């Protein structure tokens, strides 16, 4: 990770869960990390924690609603002005709404598409453009995917969410191919966890706390730090090594 010290990473959805832990780990490794979310106050608290822990890097909170393309563009403009640009882009933000294919609300589907697919694609594009204009040839774009991007579970509540994660699988490989065609050494990777104990289930089943809690009651799920460690592993790989996807799940998870 030494080559990343002092360089800039963007982590979307950094206010809680996996994103917050990834941001903290990258700061610990000496990176300047822009953490974005709608709830910027939580990132500000995390930034203070990093300062008190005397981390080698720094965390810069930025407020951004990823469902709004104009706000994403404004965020990248602010990063360019304050930090020159992005060297690592970690598209962590994602969400699931319990909206089945036969009965789900269009608004819920659109919300998932806006965050899980469109915002991810816009951030990847803008990160690449930032790298290109500064002749950064060793940058990295990491998309937080899911095991749902590789198989379909018999759970109607997450079928549309699963479709967005299949999109992330395709987008990451497409990105890798386009980066090769552009004759650059910028790399693209996705990380596909199984069940991780975060705010994901409570948000998915916000109207049914018992159902949300039950999801984590059957076995020991992955923790956010496990995903952060995978991110560090990917970034630590030698420049000639292209890691396409890391699929990981709890040793007790069946599907």
Explain the overall architecture:
By secondary structure, this protein is of the alpha/beta class. The protein has one domain (2-247): 3-Layer(aba) Sandwich (Rossmann fold), CATH 3.40.50.720. 45% of the residues lie in helices and 15% in strands. The chain has 8 helices and 7 strands, in the order βαβαβαβαβαβαααβ. The chain has a 7-stranded parallel beta sheet with strand order 3-2-1-4-5-6-7, with helices on both faces. α2 (40-52) links the parallel β2 and β3 (58-63). The protein is globular, with a radius of gyration of 17 Å. 43% of the residues are buried. The model has no long low-confidence stretch (mean pLDDT 96).
Précis, in short:
This is Dehydrogenase/reductase SDR family member 11. The chain has a single domain (about 1-245), classed as NAD(P)-binding Rossmann-like Domain (Rossmann fold, 3-Layer(aba) Sandwich).
Keyword list:
255 residues, 7 strands, alpha/beta, globular, 8 helices, Rossmann fold
Head-to-tail CA distance between termini: 33 Å
Structural class: alpha/beta
Uncertain regions spanning at least 5 consecutive residues: none
Q: What is the CATH domain class?
A: Alpha Beta
For this structure, what is the CATH homologous superfamily?
NAD(P)-binding Rossmann-like Domain
Radius of gyration equals 17 Å
Strand share of the residues? 5-15%
Series of H and E elements: EHEHEHEHEHEHHHE
CATH architecture: 3-Layer(aba) Sandwich
* Tally of discrete structural domains: 1
